[in-house]
Specification:
Helix content is about 30%, strand content about 25%. Helix 10 links the parallel strand 10 and strand 11. The protein is globular. Helix 5 crosses helix 6, helix 7 crosses helix 8 and helix 9 crosses helix 10. It has a 9-stranded mixed sheet, sandwiched between helices. The protein contains 17 helices and 28 strands. The termini are far apart. With about 575 residues, the protein is α/β, with parallel strands linked by helices. The protein folds into 2 domains: about 425 residues, Rossmann fold (3-Layer(aba) Sandwich); about 100 residues, ANL, C-terminal domain (GMP Synthetase, Chain A, domain 3, 2-Layer Sandwich), CATH 3.30.300.30. It binds 5'-O-[(S)-butoxy(hydroxy)phosphoryl]adenosine. 5'-O-[(S)-butoxy(hydroxy)phosphoryl]adenosine binds next to helix 10, strand 14 and strand 23. The site of 5'-O-[(S)-butoxy(hydroxy)phosphoryl]adenosine (WT7) has 23 residues, from helix 10, strand 14 and strand 23.
Length: about 575
């Protein structure tokens, strides 16, 4: 039987106290996610159970029990304290998906510091912006990424400690660089857990918006209440499950449901530290007998593309339940998985700011392929009119609105309270997406309400790409929009007008591409630059990305009354 038993019943009798009681949490008492993810599970008698089964591309394996997780996170927490890290200091985790990423996340939370995970493929500019904004005090990284940190450390007066977890002694370290190795550190049996309370900050994740720099989404320890219960009821994790979340903890799915959710439930989870390949993924499921799998539409579409013959080579009979997040899950993908894997992918909708799942498909509830499902019990959602922010009639497209009263909602954008406030209207939190509700109460995604591009589940700010382009000497103006793509749904396309003296040709495109590559995350790189004579603009001179977007997607251009005259 599934954990949720009956969606309708759960909605009727819902209270977040259900999760508080299951976690033995009483309002006003300390609550520490790191403790819940390790010590508590050991206290429940599951110390010898595997917490983490890890494998890399070379087939090297590492295994950690809950007691190992408790000890290693203690050891890392103790080390961080010993170099001077205090509660609420920001500690950036800049690691590939190696075990230290997961273990140090738990360790950072235990000492009450704020975990700031950043995607290890970020270049130095992307890293710099985020470390500067957060005033980060320490960064945990590995040899291969040290070069990027060294390039920016002089511009970051708050960054006092650079901690290298895989130092091999070959490279000479600088004064502010220290070595930490789980292999040689003395395990710390007893660590004083910092008495964080519900509103103590826990995690800082960066996300892109349409304008301005990336925003630091601040979460608190109380988010555990939502993360635990959604993991239990939506992902349906049960004691004997082997769980695989394919997301990197540089992004929120990889922390809320790749660390906090499964560990707080005491479930065994697997991590594959390797790039995508259909063969490797199926092999991983077969080898570890994965039963619950949380992935993303772009990965599913890539598996579809790899074909069905390859699936037949593997025994995937361990799979019991599948879920997806991050971008629209097209109905074809759901129908494909029903046919090929014998069960649908259950779509879930949420975002960095919401901290936990918002709209979901639940075990036992009919899946309508293409729909995001229904609000999690305890979430009050509605579709709102884009001007009045009042709920619209059923079937009408409008803005998703959420009553800001669930435990995991962000508490602010770091050092950017003004932008945070703009996310609320008429008593509703606005995620910035448009949708409609059908007559059965299911939500259907329509699109984003801003110009942010969602490429393969990663949000890209057109503004960031345009700013990078404008720094190149040849670029006069630029406008960045999405264009359709079979696998990633959307990819980034840049329109550029050149300054006099530069020629629109392949050489210029290559020069510009190489220039912006250093500034942008690989995920934000345009697939194409198109040189044009003139960008469409409003009479007041604002670039109309909407027109270029419609052109790329073969859509009607709509109202052009504000378009500049020739
Ligand atoms: C944005 C949030 C939290 C998961 C990782 C992404 C889009 C997310 C869905 C879905 C259609 C979706 C929305 C949302 N999105 N899930 N099931 N169907 N769109 O977190 O980077 O903060 O992105 O991703 O536009 O606002 P994120």
């Amino acid at each position: 039987m599934s954990n949720i038993v009956s969606y309708d019943e759960r909605v009727k009798n819902f209270s977040w106290k259900i999760a508080e009681d299951e976690l033995d949490y009483k309002p006003g008492q300390p609550i520490n996610i790191g403790w819940y993810c390790s010590d508590r599970i050991c206290q429940m008698g599951k110390g010898d159970k595997y917490a983490l089964l890890w494998e890399n591309a070379m087939g090297v394996e590492k295994k950690y029990t809950y007691n190992d997780l408790r000890l290693t996170s203690n050891t890392i927490g103790h080390f961080l304290r010993s170099v001077g890290i205090e509660a609420e200091d920001r500690v950036c985790i800049f690691l590939e998906r190696i075990p230290e990423l997961y273990l140090s996340f738990v360790g950072i939370l235990k000492i009450g510091a704020i975990a700031q995970p950043l995607f290890s493929a970020f270049g130095e500019e992307s890293l710099f912006i985020r470390l500067e904004n957060a005033g980060t005090k320490a960064i945990i990284t590995q040899r291969k990424h040290l070069g990027k940190v060294r390039k920016i450390v002089d511009k970051l007066p708050n960054l006092k400690h650079i901690i290298v977890v895989d130092h091999d002694g070959k490279k000479e370290l600088m004064d502010n660089e220290v070595v930490f190795s789980l292999e040689t550190a003395t395990p710390v049996e007893d660590l004083k857990i910092h008495p964080t309370v519900a509103e103590s900050p826990s995690v800082l994740h960066y996300t892109s918006g349409t304008t301005g720099q990336p925003k630091g989404v601040k979460h608190v320890h109380y988010s555990l209440i939502s993360q635990y219960l959604t993991t239990k009821w939506v992902l349906d994790l049960q004691d004997d499950d082997i769980y695989w979340c394919t997301a990197d903890p540089g992004w929120v799915t990889g922390t809320s449901y790749g660390i906090i959710g499964p560990f707080s439930m005491g479930v065994t989870q697997c991590v594959l530290e390797a790039g995508f390949s259909a063969e490797a993924w199926y092999k991983f499921i077969e080898k570890y007998k994965i039963s619950m799998w949380y992935s993303a539409p772009t990965a599913i579409r890539s598996l579809m593309k790899a074909g069905e013959e390859i699936i037949k080579k593997f025994n995937l009979s361990s799979l019991r339940h599948l879920a997806s997040v991050g971008e629209p899950l097209n109905s074809e993908a759901v129908i494909w998985s029903e046919r090929v894997l014998g069960m649908p992918f259950y779509d879930t909708y949420w975002q960095t700011e919401t901290g936990s799942m918002i709209l979901c498909n639940y075990p036992g509830m009919k899946v309508k392929p293409g729909s995001m499902g229904k609000p999690f019990p305890g979430i009050t959602a509605a579709i709102l009119d884009i001007k009045t922010f009042e709920p619209v009639a059923q079937g009408v497209v409008g803005l998703i609105g959420l009553k800001p009263d669930w435990p995991a909602l962000m508490r602010t954008y770091w050092a950017n309270e003004e932008t945070f406030k703009k996310k609320f209207e008429n008593g509703w939190y606005l995620p910035g997406d448009r949708a409609r509700i059908d007559s059965d109460g299911y939500y259907w995604f329509v699109g984003r309400d801003d110009d942010v591009i969602n490429t393969g589940g990663h949000l890209v700010s057109p503004f960031e790409v345009e700013s990078a382009l404008l720094e190149h000497e040849a670029v006069a103006e630029s406008a960045v929009v999405s264009k359709p793509d079979e696998i990633n749904m959307e990819v980034v396309k840049a329109f550029v007008t050149l300054k006099p003296g530069f020629e629109a040709n392949d050489d210029t495109e290559l020069l510009i591409m190489n220039f912006i590559r250093k500034k942008l995350s690989p995920l934000a790189m345009p697939q194409e630059i198109e040189f044009i004579e003139k960008l469409p603009k409003t009479r007041s001179g604002k670039i109309m990305r909407r027109i270029l977007h419609a052109q790329e997607w073969g859509e009607e251009i709509g109202d052009t009354s504000t378009l500049e005259d020739d």
